[in-house]
Amino acid sequence: MKKLIYVITLLFILINYATAIPNDNVIKTFNGAYSPSFVDLKN
To answer: Are 35 and 20 spatial neighbours (Cβ–Cβ below 8 Å)?
Structure first.
């Protein structure tokens, strides 16, 4: 069960990273994943 959660988390991070490459705003959101509102205020 722990391994499944680990794999899902890894896939989620990889998908986010792959989507973030062409989009600077997504990169900023990904880097500030724990505080997206703070990132939005910075823009």
So the answer is: no
d(CA 40, CA 2): 33
Q: Kindly state the tokens that stand for 4.
A: 């499944």
Rounded to whole angstroms, the Cα distance separating 41 from 17 reads 22
- pTM, two decimals, is 0.39
Q: What is the mean pLDDT of the chain?
A: 67
Q: What is the dihedral of CA 36, 29, 5, 7, to 10 degrees?
A: 180
What amino acid occupies position 3? Answer: K
Kindly write down the DSSP assignment for every residue of 18-38, as one continuous string.
Answer: HHHTT-HHHHHHHHTTT-HHH
